[in-house]
Write a structure and sequence with these properties.
The complex is a heterodimer of chains A (396) and B (221).
Chain A: H1 2-11, H2 13-45, E1 55-61, H3 68-84, E2 88-94, E3 104-110, E4 113-122, H4 126-129, E5 134-137, E6 149-155, H5 156-163, E7 172-173, E8 183-190, E9 205-209, E10 222-227, H6 234-246, E11 251-256, H7 257-299, H8 302-310, H9 315-341, H10 343-346, H11 355-386, H12 389-392
Parallel strand pairs in A: 4-9, 6-8
Antiparallel strand pairs in A: 1-10, 1-11, 2-10, 3-4, 5-8, 6-9, 7-8
Helix pairs in contact in A: 2-7, 2-9, 2-11, 3-6, 7-11, 9-11
Chain B: E1 2-12, E2 17-28, E3 33-37, H1 44-51, E4 59-64, E5 67-68, H2 74-84, E6 85-88, H3 100-109, H4 115-128, H5 144-156, E7 162-166, H6 174-191, E8 194-198, H7 202-206, E9 210-215, E10 218-220
Parallel strand pairs in B: 3-8, 3-9, 6-7, 7-8
Antiparallel strand pairs in B: 1-2, 1-4, 4-5, 9-10
Helix pairs in contact in B: 3-4, 3-5, 4-5, 5-6
The chains are: A alpha+beta (396), B alpha/beta (221).
Chain lengths: 396, 221
């Protein structure tokens, strides 16, 4: 029977082109949607690299351009004042805030590789207190003070890209545009710090050290605090009073990392939900198109179905044959598109389309496509086999 | 071979009830060659369809080779059609996208049989109708008479007990019609195949052993 089906499909190749084309286009659409969804899902489930549950962020607005000579001292006073509070367990600083889109992007030639990375200024206590995991080397420390290098920490992805399996600790690299500057020395490797949240792709990341005493020409504006015991919103007022008392001209905004994360997820999920609805409609339209093509194809074969039944085929065997033929056609369409789609990961045309996402999307799309073909073929084939053979033989 | 007892067939639509066959009693003996005649719309084809289990009677009983058809369950009748009955249609009903040999093999696809055995039997059937040289042709490459001979080969390939032919020469000129008739006669005489043929052609009907006439859904004796 399989040889018979293959023969029939081959001999009807011209008539089958429409189905193969419809399946091929549908498969490509489903593949891209699956790949996008899986890529987002995988990104979301990758380790964030830090804990967001019990940290508050105090955003400092100096009201003018950062003047390091003046502002660094006032900023230090704020930090020292906060550290003195018995309720506060840790105080950490970041130039680029978490769960926001602001980021610093840079590139350097490291160990012969051009590495594009995101960077941030943090103080020596911050990362540890936010639960960033140290994998190799050490945290920033007092031993780095006054050295002839600039200490940096990199994440695991940075280390893998630049050093593969070799040890990056102690490696020094410079800035080819500013050779006069101190070399950067890697003192530690941390797992990750996806500062922009769960929906941001993990990429090479680098921490520069911010020292309160020296300040930074770029400034510093995010103080992140954790508590010994959980604090409620009323504590916010106490904090504001304390901070305003030290720098009355500066503005402060206090938010929990949890609230920032929720707001960001909401911001991402709304367009994603709209897209999901559009995709659902698209799939319905595609399914209807496929349904129409399959119905037309099966209707044209009503006489043949009547003949086969007259010659001894049961309804079930005919339905299985029709569905079998359509599955073979679908696999043919899928095969053609797959040959094109596999070029994407081979040629690395889309960064997000890793091999794992490619194969997973392929599998999902194939299952969805085949289920869709079977469902779309079920009703027309059932309708066709319900026509009594005596009538089907005379069907026009 | 085939016995119809008190067969009635009525078609129902929303408002109209059409009696297609009424109180049909007919016995076809093994090895007999009979023709069914009657004006258009008298129920000849309906009768043939009921004989061939392509349609179920509203009332009555059918016996094939002594066995009563008790159930019109799809699987059951499909198997009976496949094993015991061969069909020849006026418009041949060949699958245009399959070669002659593949068309002839069709009924054997629904039996448990090896591909080699199927091919052997199909070649044998084509040889029987004189088309051995055309196995790899497609139906469109054959004349009407040749196509009908392929249809006959397909009908006999499974060695059925009963051959039902619905106006097998209806689409052919008299010369080709005669050729087909000769094949049917040969199948009946040489192989002992029981044949029931619906025809409008009185001359062809006269060549069969018995003529059954149908008028307004009833047999005329």
């Amino acid at each position: 029977m399989l040889a018979h089906i293959a023969k029939l499909i081959w001999n009807r190749k011209q008539a089958n082109i429409l189905i193969i084309t419809e399946v091929a286009i549908t498969f490509a659409v489903i593949f891209f949607i699956s790949a996008l969804a899986l890529s987002n899902y995988q990104t979301y489930h990758q380790p964030l690299g830090f804990k967001w549950q019990d940290t508050w962020e105090i955003k400092v607005n100096t009201g003018a351009e950062w003047n390091n000579d003046v502002d660094k001292d006032q900023f230090s006073q704020l930090v020292y004042a906060l550290k003195k509070q018995p309720e506060i367990a840790s105080v950490g600083l970041t130039l680029m805030p978490v769960f926001e889109r602001s980021s610093m992007t840079s590139s350097r030639e490291v160990n012969g590789q051009e590495i594009y990375f995101k960077a941030n200024y943090v103080d020596q206590h911050g990362p540890k207190s936010w639960g960033v995991e140290l994998i190799a080397g050490r945290w920033f420390g007092e031993q780095d003070n006054g050295q002839n290098y600039t200490e940096v920490m990199i994440n695991q992805r940075f280390a893998q890209q630049a050093f593969n399996d070799s040890n990056p600790i102690g490696f020094e690299f410079g800035n080819s545009l500013h050779p006069e500057r101190k070399l950067l020395r890697i003192v530690g490797v941390f797992q990750d710090f996806r500062q922009m949240g769960e929906f941001s792709k993990s990429m090479p990341y680098l921490f520069y050290r911010y020292q309160l005493e020296e300040g930074n020409s770029r400034g510093m504006n995010n103080i992140n605090i954790t508590f010994n015991t959980m604090k409620n919103a009323s504590y916010e007022e106490d904090l504001l009073k304390l901070l305003k008392g030290i720098t009355p001209n500066w503005e402060f905004t206090i938010r929990t990392w949890q609230a920032k994360r929720q707001a960001q997820i909401k911001e991402v999920l709304i367009p994603l939900s709209v897209m999901a609805i559009v995709v659902a409609f698209l799939l319905i339209m595609v399914a209807m198109g496929l349904f129409g093509v399959l119905w037309q194809n099966i209707s044209r074969r009503t006489q043949e179905i009547g003949l086969r039944r007259a010659l001894g085929a049961s309804k079930l065997s005919i339905q299985l044959q029709i569905i079998g033929e359509l599955i073979v056609l679908a696999l043919f369409g899928i095969g053609i598109v797959s040959l094109l789609l596999i070029q994407l990961p081979i040629l690395q045309l889309v960064d997000e389309l890793t091999w794992s996402i490619f194969w997973l999307s392929m599998s999902c799309s194939m299952v969805i496509m085949l289920v869709m073909v079977v469902l779309c073929a079920l009703y027309p084939s059932r309708t066709a086999i319900r026509i009594p053979p005596a009538h089907a033989l005379h069907y026009e | 071979m085939l016995k119809l007892e008190e067969i009635n067939k009525t078609y129902h639509t929303d408002k109209i009830e059409t009696i297609a066959l009424k109180d049909i009693n007919l016995t076809v003996k093994k090895g007999e060659f009979i023709s069914i005649m009657g004006p258009s719309g008298c129920g000849k084809s309906t009768l043939l369809n009921i004989m061939g289990l392509l349609d179920a009677p509203t009332e009555g009983q059918i016996k094939i080779s002594g066995a009563v058809i008790e159930s019109y369950d799809d699987k059951n009748v499909a198997q009976l059609r496949n094993q015991k009955i061969g069909f020849i249609f006026q418009s041949f009903h060949l699958i245009q996208d399959l070669r002659v040999i593949d068309n002839v093999e069709l009924p054997l696809l629904y039996r448990k049989m090896s591909a080699k055995e199927r091919r052997r039997l199909a070649n044998q059937a084509l040889e029987r109708v004189g088309l051995k040289a055309r196995t790899d042709h497609f139906p469109a490459q054959l004349s009407g008479g040749q196509q009908q001979r392929v249809a006959i080969a397909r009908a006999i390939v499974g060695k059925p007990d009963l051959l039902l032919a619905d106006e097998p020469t209806g689409n052919l000129d008299s010369h080709m019609g005669n050729e087909i008739m000769q094949i049917l006669e040969s199948l009946n005489k040489d192989d002992g195949t029981t044949i029931v043929m619906v025809t409008h052609d009185d001359e062809l009907a006269q060549r069969t052993e018995r003529i059954v006439r149908v008028y307004d859904g009833q047999l005329i004796h």
